[in-house]
Design goal:
Blueprint (H helix, E strand, L loop, with lengths): L1 H17 L5 H5 L5 H12 L6 H13 L3 H17 L4 H12 L1
C-alpha cells in the first residue's frame, strides 16, 4: 500500500515533534484513526505553544471526508512550519484563521 510506504518513510522525522510512537504516520495513513492521532498530537504539543489544534481540526475534517492527501498536506505543512521556524505559533494561528474565513 503506497500510503503505508509513505508513512514509514516519513515517520522518523516527525515522531519527536509529536511525542508519539514510531508508527504515528502509519496511524495517520488510516482515515479512521486520524482523529485519535490529532487529539494526541494536540495534547503533546500544546505546552510548546504550537497551534496544532487548528491544524488538527482540518486534518480530522479532511480525514472524515476521505480526503487523505489533503489531511497529509496539512500535517506536513504544520511540521514544516514548526521545524523550519518560519513562523511564530501566533502568526501561524492567525494565518489559519484568515484562510478558514
Amino acid at each position: 500500500d503506497a500510503r503505508a510506504v509513505w508513512a514509514r518513510e516519513r515517520a522518523p522525522a516527525h515522531v519527536q515533534m509529536l511525542g508519539h510512537a514510531a508508527d504515528a504516520y502509519a496511524v495517520l495513513a488510516l482515515p479512521e484513526h486520524v482523529e485519535a492521532l490529532c487529539e494526541e498530537a494536540a495534547s503533546t504539543t500544546v505546552g510548546r505553544g504550537v497551534p496544532f489544534a487548528l491544524r488538527a481540526s482540518l486534518i480530522v475534517a479532511h480525514g472524515r471526508a476521505g480526503q487523505l492527501q489533503k489531511a497529509i498536506a496539512v500535517f506536513e505543512q504544520s511540521n514544516h512550519d514548526v521545524f523550519a521556524q518560519k513562523a511564530t505559533p501566533e502568526s501561524v494561528g492567525e494565518e489559519e484563521l484568515r484562510q478558514r474565513g
